[in-house]
Amino acid sequence: MVQAPPELVRHRVPTPLRGVVAGVVGIVEDAPTPRRRTQPAGTLLPLVVSYDAPLHVAGHDRQSFVAGFMPRPVVTEFAGRHAAVQVYLSPLGVRRLLGVPGSALAEQVVDAPELLPALAGLPERLAAAGDWAARFALVDGALLALAAAAPPDDLLVTWAWERLEASGGRLRVGDLAARSGWSARHLSGRFRDTVGVAPKVAASVIRFERASRDLGRLPPAEVAARHGFADQSHLHRDVVRFAGETPAEHARARRPTAHTALGGYPRE
């Protein structure tokens, strides 16, 4: 039996949330038998509010949850009808929107009501809403209320994250620190507190994400050279580290990720 593709609806992020929220999507998916996925490491952090069958993540069934920065793959599973609104936060958005440092969530999956009591009744309200416009309005309202109480940005970390992204993860931490005027130790400490991982780890995940776009489209040696890996073996090790599979397996999988859900990283 061929399973129908999921219904995926993209929502425009309200202007006050841009830079904090990378994107919002609604998804409905049916799985007559359990559907298990391995989600690779990535730089977008999901806040998932399910209003039908929960997702099984990190050993527990979760109706709504937030995942911190994960420099490793994560397995999710569900059966039946899964319907949710998925909010993708930038690594800087965790501290700004959720009011906790990224270090408090790194490599963890936390039930959303535990972290944000204001979201406790949101799954029921989403289930009662009549259409996607109403559901997105509920989510926008909750996020805008959180953003109104957001602490100020750490401008040093914002600057450092933007430099790492602009370089595709190829900028060395020593060079980043030298440009900042601070010591590498000081920069790394503030970066880890806000983002949840050290700059070197964040740079590696950024580089992996960019390289993933080209796997299956270009020869592995060319992908390695284009994205700043020392050699093809280095690329292989990082893909296994962050995706839990070889580059060839990762290219064949073409699974949904945060970036494809948001319309980025297209595959031809």
Task: Describe this protein with a few key phrases.
Jelly Rolls; alpha+beta; 268 residues; 42% helix; 8 strands; single chain; 2 domains
Please provide the count of β strands. 8
* Spatial gap, N to C terminus: 26 Å
Gross morphology: globular
Order of helices and strands: EEEEEEEHEHHHHHHHHHHH
Q: CATH topology of the largest domain, what is it called?
A: Jelly Rolls
Radius of gyration: 19 Å
What is the helix tally?
12
Instruction: Write down the domain tally.
Output: 2
Quaternary assembly = single chain
- The CATH architecture category of the largest domain equals Sandwich
Mean pLDDT across all residues, rounded?
89
Query: What share of residues are in beta strands?
Result: 15-25%
Quickly give the structural class: alpha+beta
- The CATH C-level name of the largest domain is Mainly Beta
Low-pLDDT runs of 5+ residues are: 264-268
Q: Biggest β-sheet: count, sense, barrel?
A: 8 strands, antiparallel
Classify the helix fraction into a percent range.
Answer: 40-55%
Explain this structure:
With 268 residues, the protein is α+β, with helices and mostly antiparallel strands. It has twelve helices and eight strands. It folds into two domains: 7-148, Jelly Rolls, CATH 2.60.120; 155-261, Arc Repressor Mutant, subunit A, CATH 1.10.10.60. A hairpin with a 2-residue loop joins strand 4 and strand 5 (60-62). Helix 5 (155-166) packs across helix 7, helix 5 (155-166) runs parallel beside helix 8 and helix 8 (199-214) packs across helix 10 (232-243).
Describe how the helices and strands are arranged.
Layout: E1 7-11, E2 21-39, E3 45-50, E4 55-57, E5 60-62, E6 64-67, E7 74-89, H1 93-98, E8 109-111, H2 112-115, H3 122-128, H4 132-148, H5 155-166, H6 173-180, H7 184-195, H8 199-214, H9 220-226, H10 232-243, H11 247-253, H12 258-261
Antiparallel strand pairs: 1-2, 2-7, 3-6, 3-7, 4-5, 4-7, 6-8
Helix pairs in contact: 3-4, 5-7, 5-8, 8-10
